[in-house]
């Protein structure tokens, strides 16, 4: 019989099932001179430097090193909007395969919030990518029927494998206190995954601690230290993040309240206003207004 505390769990499927990340291939081949990638709401990037060397630069005040030299095949993952530039010698253009990433919910996507602004990893460091990258490069090197669609899906596979690696190597990836450090903790990961899979359950501190195989006090202390907020706050924020996604998709406040375990629409509205600073209707109007301004701009 398998002990529940030692049985393997899937730490990210529940997250990505609710909040998808879609990849869109937009470049494959050499880049010469200076190439600029602008920041756009809800848009990230995944670049694979296949061959060559380059200098990567960021704008002043972006919170990242302004100049980084990359001298070997490398993954460059921007989970959040971040303007950046590649500088390649015009005579020796470096070889890239690049995809834009669209995060459901934009800046509120749980993984986009939890990851560093830039994940930069030499390919040799990330185990298990060889076969997926070989398939990706095979599709991007030749134009065949459906190659762009297949390349998009393969980029999503590479991203999923990268996320797995980050969860298994949090210290090496520069991840700060938060969701991913919690998912990297074997005990806390069980409680977090259970909350992600069943946000509408009647969760108590005892129930969460039981999922982790810990006492209430030990669980509460460890959760706050590793994740950076209390279990109750995390659960409430997770529910509100789901509520925002559902409201954007046209669901009613009553429907969302029922799904997330609130007694009624008024109960959800009270918590929503406390967390977001606006009522669900007011927040949705503001989101629609922002989208309209972006479309016109």
Write the layout of secondary structure elements.
Elements: H1 13-18, E1 21-31, E2 33-37, E3 43-51, E4 54-58, E5 67-70, E6 74-78, E7 84-88, E8 94-103, H2 110-114, E9 119-122, H3 130-141, H4 147-168, H5 179-184, H6 186-197, H7 205-212, H8 216-227, H9 231-248, H10 253-259, H11 265-276, H12 280-296
Antiparallel strand pairs: 1-8, 2-7, 3-6, 3-8, 4-5, 4-7, 6-9
Helix pairs in contact: 3-4, 6-7, 7-8, 9-11, 10-11
As a percent range, the share of strand residues is 15-25%
Overall pLDDT, averaged? 89
Oligomer: single chain
**Order of strands across the widest beta sheet?**
1-8-3-6-9
Order of helices and strands: HEEEEEEEEHEHHHHHHHHHH
Query: Unreliable stretches, pLDDT < 50, 5 or more residues?
Result: none
Structure notes:
The chain is of the alpha+beta class. It folds into two domains: 156 residues, Sandwich (Jelly Rolls), CATH 2.60.120.10; 112 residues, Orthogonal Bundle (Arc Repressor Mutant, subunit A). Helix content is 46%, strand content 20%. It is built from twelve helices and nine strands. The chain has a five-stranded antiparallel β-sheet. Helix 9 packs across helix 11 and helix 10 crosses helix 11. The longest helix is centred in the middle third of the chain and has 22 residues. It starts with 12 loop residues before the first helix and ends with a helix. The mean pLDDT is 89.
């Amino acid at each position: 019989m398998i002990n529940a505390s030692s049985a393997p769990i899937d730490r990210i499927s529940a997250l990505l099932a609710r909040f998808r990340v879609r990849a869109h291939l937009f470049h494959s081949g050499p880049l010469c001179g200076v190439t600029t990638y602008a920041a756009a709401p809800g848009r990230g990037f995944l670049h694979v430097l296949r061959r060559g060397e380059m200098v990567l630069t960021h704008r002043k005040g972006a919170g990242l090193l302004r100049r980084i030299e990359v001298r070997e095949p490398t993954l460059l993952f921007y989970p959040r909007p971040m303007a950046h530039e590649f500088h390649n010698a015009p005579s020796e253009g470096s070889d890239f395969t690049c995809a834009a990433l669209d995060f459901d919910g934009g800046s509120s996507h749980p993984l986009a919030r939890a990851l560093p602004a830039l994940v930069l990893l030499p390919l040799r460091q990330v185990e298990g990518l060889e076969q997926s990258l070989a398939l990706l490069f095979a599709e991007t090197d030749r134009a065949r029927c459906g190659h762009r669609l297949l390349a998009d899906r393969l980029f999503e596979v590479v991203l999923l494998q990268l996320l797995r690696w980050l969860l298994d190597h949090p210290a090496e990836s520069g991840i700060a206190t938060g969701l991913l450090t919690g998912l990297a903790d074997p005990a806390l990961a069980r409680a977090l995954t259970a909350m992600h899979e069943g946000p509408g359950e009647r969760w108590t501190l005892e129930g969460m601690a039981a999922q982790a195989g810990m006492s209430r006090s030990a669980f509460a202390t460890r959760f706050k230290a590793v994740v950076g907020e209390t279990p109750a706050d995390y659960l409430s924020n997770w529910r509100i993040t789901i509520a925002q996604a559902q409201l954007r998709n046209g669901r009613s406040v009553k429907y969302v309240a029922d799904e997330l375990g609130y007694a009624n629409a008024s109960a959800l509205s009270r918590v929503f206003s406390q967390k977001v600073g606006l009522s669900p209707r007011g927040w949705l109007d503001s989101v629609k207004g922002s989208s309209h301004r972006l479309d016109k701009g």
